[in-house]
Amino acid sequence: MKPVKIGVIGLGNVGSGALAILTGNAQSLAEKLGFPLEIAAVCSPSVNTRELPALPGVLKTTNWREVVAHPEVEIVAELVGGTGTAREIIEAALTAGKSVVTANKELLAAAGPELWALAVAHGASLAMEASVAGGIPVHTVLRDGISGDRIETLFGILNGTCNYILTEIEQKGSAFADVLAEAQRLGYAEADPTADVDGFDARSKLAILAGLAFGQRVDPATIYTEGIRRVSPLDFAYAHTLKHTIRLICAARRTPTGLLLSVRPSLLPQSAIMAGVTGAYNAVWVKGEFGQDTFYYGRGAGAHPTGVAVVSDLVRVARELRGGARTSPFAHVQLASGEPRPMEQLRSSYYLRFRVRDAHGIIAKLAGILAAKGISIDAVLQLPNEPKEDLPFVITVEPAEEGAIRAAVAEMAALDFVIEPPLAMPIEKGL
Predict the structure, then answer these.
(1) Cβ contact 404:397 at 8 Å
(2) Which run of H or E residues covers position 86?
(3) Which one of 55, 291, 374, 416 has the minimum C-beta count within 10 Å?
(4) Whole-model pTM?
(5) d(CA 234, CA 11)
(6) C-alpha torsion angle, residues 166, 169, 170, 174 (rounded to 10)
């Protein structure tokens, strides 16, 4: 059977990793497929100056249009990222009837269904395994592995940068700003870390997984999102007192009235399997109505782990080109429209951390506000602290609706002894 020819556009971290795997693992891939995967063209602004594997006879260009127009290229790997040029590349390739493999989480979260419709209209395939969780094949799991189940809940640690930062704060007691600077020095965080530490990267990934797991299209902007900038070593000290830890959790819950979706720092029991996910690793926990709990763990980024996901998609699409039916990358023929339910409807226990100036009757005033909102106190914790002008302490509360919690926090923030708005984090019990 004749080879399937590939064009690779983008030779950054992921593109270089995919190229190395395609060349270094070519024999094994051919044995799995029954025919070779061959690179016909590569594109990058630095293609003529960077060190590449030996690629005899391969077109090397700085113009992506030459890759899309290459008569032998059947699959285009778009590994540029972003939503501008990358969208032009994908749309041009699909319109030309060429299948596309991409790792572009931001674009797929915003326009994935439209791109899949374009692929169908032109007899092409679209694959996106590398867009979420790097080296964890969670798309394949949701699309094929547990497709017979009805997903009820999905929790994920989907941003390796945030997980690295939180792990360092927990293990070394370092301040957020210091750990972020170190993460930037090591290459774990970008010069502008906003997308990572404020939760937007994880939000795009959760929007994609919502399509796969629940068959619903979700605008990422409608997902409730909080970042990790306010999490401190003190919060980990209190969390440990409660036998919990803190992670940035992407949560999707099916309810009778719709999906509840959020990206936010949350307390997890130290006994929970996800509490053990440290450093730059990712994990996804899925609970099905019939199959119950399954858990997936691995590296969330990196040239080779993410490159493996890209190449695995190339293998799947190559099989489709040589005789299989096209498969929706979202595991559903068509995604339903609809917005997530308001997070105010979530019912959970909460951790409330305060910083106050010492005064008489603080707990009584806070307890009165909570009681007026129908919220019951579970515990009050205060670790030893000397400066009376900045005293931290924690109140944990019994399960309550988030709307009531937010109203209480807003009222508490206006009290004259409160130094900064209280930090509220849900305490996840069901993991």
Answers:
(1) no
(2) helix 85-95
(3) 416
(4) 0.93
(5) 42
(6) 180
Which one of the listed residues 98, 105, 205, 287 is annotated catalytic?
205
Distance between CA atoms of 272 and 236, rounded to whole angstroms? 16
Please list, in sequence order, all residues whose beta carbon lies within 8 angstroms of the beta carbon of residue 313, skipping any fewer than 6 positions away.
Answer: 101, 127, 128, 129, 130
Task: Judge whether 2 counts as a catalytic residue.
Answer: no
Query: Which tens digit of pLDDT belongs to each residue from 364-422?
Result: 999 999 999 999 999 999 988 777 889 999 999 999 999 999 999 999 999 999 999 99
In whole angstroms, what is the distance from residue 121 CA to residue 117 CA? Answer: 6
Q: Where is 108: in which H helix or E strand?
A: helix 105-121
- Which domains occur in the chain, in start order? 4-133+303-321 (3.40.50.720), 138-299 (3.30.360.10), 345-427 (3.30.70.260)
Q: What b/e readout covers 185-214, taking b as 16+ CB neighbours within 10 angstroms?
A: eeebbeeebebbbbbbbbbbbbbbbbbbbb
SS3 315: helix
Within 8 A by CB and 6+ apart from 44, the residues are 9, 10, 11, 12, 15, 50, 62
Nearest Cα residue to 107 out of 135, 133, 80, 81 = 81
Three-state DSSP class for 336?
strand
Residue 377 burial (CB count, 10 A): 15
Element (H, E) at 113: helix 105-121
Q: For the chain, how are helix, strand and coil distributed in percent, rounded to 5? A: 40, 25, 35
